[in-house]
C-alpha cells in the first residue's frame, strides 16, 4: 500500500471513525483502524463489535492499493500534531506502516487486515432515504431521555418505529419519555421496531451531515445508515420496548402555556438552590401565575414567579428540575405548553406550534 494525502483530507475520515474505537480492548485489533485503498478510494473503518463506522475519501495520488490495520489513537495524534496543509505519504514495509511528512518520519506497528472483524448485518426489512439534518433532529430531540446503564437493558437505547408513512423515535429512562415523529414516504406491511444502543445513537448524531440525504436500512438485528462519505452500522438491542402509548397522559384538564425562554431561565435560576441529589422544584400554579420554589439541606431557598396562561384550579406539583430543563433546551419554539391533571400524574409538554414532538415527565413527592 502506497499513497499520499493532505493532512486535512486524511483527518476527515479518521475523525469520523476514531471515537468508536475503544481504548481498552480484549482484542488488540479493535484498538486499530482498518485502512483500505482500492481504485483511488480510501476507506477507514473503526468498530467495537457493536457499532461500525466507515469513513471514505477520494485520493489523487494512489500508487498501490491494499489494506492494513494501524493503531487508531496514535495515528490520530500524529496527524493532528503535523502542521496544517502538510502532505503525508503512507507506505507499508515489512509489516509496519511508514508515515512521512516533510522532515518527520513515523513507523507504526500493524496487524493483518484479515484479523479485523466485521459487524454482521443480515437482510433489511425497510429501506428509505431521509435528509441527514432531519434524522439528526429526530435523534437530538429525544436522545437526552435514554437511560444510562439501567438493568432494563432495552432502555439503554432509542426505539425507532417505522409504521405506515411515519418514522418515530422514542427514548425513556422510566422517569421521563421523549417522542418525536416525522412523516415518511414508505409503506410497510406491519409496524417495525428497532432499539439502537446508546453508543450507536451518540455516534450517529455526531456524524450525520447537515446537508444531503442519507440511506437508512432497518433490519432484524442491525441498522445501517449510508451517506456520501460514510457508512454507519450498529447491532440492535434484542428486547421488547415498553408500550409507550400507555405512558402518555390522557385527559389532562389543566393547561399552562408560557414563554419557553422565560420559563427555562427561571427554572435554571431556581435549580441553583435545589437539593443536589434529588433536584426537586415545587410548582404552584394559580390563575395566570406560576410560582416555583426550591430548597436544600442547608436551609437555602430560591423562589421565582413567572406570568403564564393557566386554566384550571390551583395546583401544587413537584418535578426534577433537570428533566424540565432538558425538555426546554431541545424545544425550538418561542412558546411551550404543559398539560397537567393533579399532583400525582405525569405532565405532558409540547411546543404548541409543532406537535411532532412531545415529552412526558413523572412528578416528584417533595
Sum up the structure in keywords.
single chain; 366 residues; alpha+beta; DNA Polymerase III, Chain A, domain 2; 3 domains; nine-stranded antiparallel beta sheet; eight-stranded antiparallel beta sheet; 26 strands; 17% helix
Write the layout of secondary structure elements.
Blueprint: E1 2-6, H1 7-18, E2 32-38, E3 41-47, E4 51-58, E5 61-64, E6 66-71, H2 72-81, E7 87-93, E8 96-101, E9 104-109, E10 124-131, H3 132-140, E11 157-163, E12 166-172, E13 176-183, E14 192-197, H4 198-207, E15 213-219, E16 222-226, E17 230-235, E18 254-259, H5 260-271, E19 280-286, E20 289-295, E21 301-307, E22 309-311, E23 315-320, H6 321-330, E24 335-340, E25 347-351, E26 354-361
Describe this structure in words.
The protein has about 375 residues and is of the alpha+beta class. It folds into 3 domains: about 1-115, Roll (DNA Polymerase III, Chain A, domain 2), CATH 3.10.150; about 125-245, DNA Polymerase III, subunit A, domain 2 (DNA Polymerase III, Chain A, domain 2, Roll); about 255-360, DNA Polymerase III, subunit A, domain 2 (DNA Polymerase III, Chain A, domain 2, Roll). Helices cover about 15% and strands about 45% of the residues. The protein has 6 helices and 26 strands. The chain has a 9-stranded antiparallel sheet with strand order 14-11-12-13-26-25-24-18-22. Strands 6-2-3-4-17-16-15-10 form an 8-stranded antiparallel sheet. A hairpin with a 2-residue loop joins strand 7 (about 85-95) and strand 8 (about 95-100). The chain starts with a strand and ends in a 5-residue tail after the last strand. The relative contact order is 0.11. The model has no long low-confidence stretch (mean pLDDT about 95).
